[in-house]
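Hey, can you fold this one?
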Amino acid sequence: MDRKIKVGVIGVGALGRHHARLYKQVVPNVELVGIFDVSKETAQKVGEEFDIKVYDRWEDLAAECDALNVAVPANYHASSVLPLLKMGKHVLVEKPIAASVEEAVEMVETARANNCVLGVGHVERFNPAMTFLEKYADETRFVEVHRLAKYPPPRPGMHRRGTEVSVVLDLMIHDLDLILTMINSEVERIDAVGIPVLSSTEDIVNVRLKFKNGSCANVTASRVSEEPQRRFRVFQEDTYISMDYGNHSGMVLKRNRIGLARKDVNLDAHNALALELEDFANAVRKTLATGQLSDTKVPGEAGLKALRLAVDIVNEIHTYNDHYGFKFAPCSVDDFEKNK
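Sure. Predicted structure:
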């Protein structure tokens, strides 16, 4: 296929803005047709900043594209993506794939029925630290993860970014997807605790996952932390790997005949998001050229698998809190700010 893939971006807020920028400036063999956002002011600002055509209707943008990149709040994923798939458009949707398993199942089934690429934006799969870890996935026995972030800034008239869903679906789902690629086994048991702090959904969560093959994982996610952190540690039968996939560095301790050998790992930093977008464009190009569906590195089915686990964790948290009679006020920091 000689021509460039025609792509549009729907939703150009905090994340979508970077999608549009990279399609325009970095991703090869792609023509960025234009952008759409329900906030005309936001769309106009991004359009002027990067010299991108702004559309008043998403339908008009979609009609001129082979593929669409959807970066809207999670509770609008299904309502935004399903019409595009039914039009026969290929779609890359930000994580989580949807706000509910039922919506995600419908999205995956609709994509397959229409021979459409459906990719999910689990961008950490393209992080160089994860590329390194995947090489050592065999014999993984224990994984410990900390993903901590500051509380997101306010957005006029909208939820703060990500707070429309639990931190499990907002941040932890990245690590759940990574763990499911590292441990090839079904989850046997979930022990989870979590509470809302500043929003009406869980802001901090810890979960211990036990797998049927005996492996386990301990995962913590917070969006109310002072200091951001993204650490992923893997314990194997004869190896310990510690990776900071925020700064692309880490170390490996491996047992040998005389004790432990240490190797420091300095990974080349690259733009994981640009690689994700290029992977999506390549899958679309192959599908258009051959007529045979070509999956992205993180297809809809993988996004659905991670979402199922995330929803199970949230349900376990609610069961735990109900059992112990823990009650949390259904209000957010934004409500307090309004009432000052």
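The first helix runs from residue 16 to 25. Let me know if you want another pass with a different chain boundary.
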